[in-house]
Amino acid sequence: MSVEKAVVIGSGPAGLTAAIYAARAALSPLVFEGFNAGGLIPGGQLMYTTEVENYPGFPDGVTGPLLMKAFRDQAERFGTRYIREDVNEIDLGKRPFVVKSDEHTVETHALIIATGARANWRGLENEQRLAQSGGGVSACAVCDGAMPIYRDQELVVVGGGDSAIEEASYLTKFAGKVHIVHRRDQLRAGKAMQERFFKLVDEGKMQPQWNSVVDDVLGDQFITGVQLKDVKTGDVRELPCRGLFLAIGHTPNTELVKGKLDLDDKGYIKLPNPGSSHASIEGVFAAGDVADHLYRQAITAAGTGCMAAIDAERWLAAQGIE
Q: CB count, 10 Å around CB of 219?
């Protein structure tokens, strides 16, 4: 069995950018682009996104699938090879590392983990349908909130932590009013975020819907409202809105490396050296949302994919592997 110089697990912006840089560095990377790991498909979360308007270089916007096809084609042009399978097992206890899928077993000197993270959803049928069709349901206000369809409209954000208030605050720049739906009668957010929240409530830009959960999403082609259920009384009511944003956290796709790499308390891969993509085992690198619980943007994922490929190239050279 020949040994690969570099294997990339994941085919979102981080994984494919890593592949582009690794290929141009003559590492001939092999990418396990996945099939359905963690509920994601090849290309990652952007494959479920319609219009992407904040990725540099596309002044008129671009759809998520077209953007990811461009990433993939560019990596392939420079010699990247692909296996469209999920990785089931990796062995980091021996060198070269071993990467296994259903039909392939590969050895590699360097390994780049770019398996991403998945947004947490309520799991409602209409929620998923409208999210995937571009019907006004999203898990990223920063990605989608500035779109014209949300201007001066009533929007709903689900969540009660710092991320929810951050997302809702961002949306108040464009929306007529933002409703915060939270299953408790007080926020989980920190003091600073709570102060921001109540200030926006006083200004009429935000309104809480306490002790409530979204029980259904209303609308055919586009969202027209949500059905709220009171968690204490069981009463159901409708709240008209033109956008629903889920801010109930993300789950990193790190099941593959649990017990093998150091993870933080939220399950993200730890990067011991700030400004570096090196993971806790020498020769393993992490890129994108699998190691980023703060930004979670396509552009930052791509940037860390670049870093991981450069780090891997330099590490391989230091080992005399070129």
A: 18
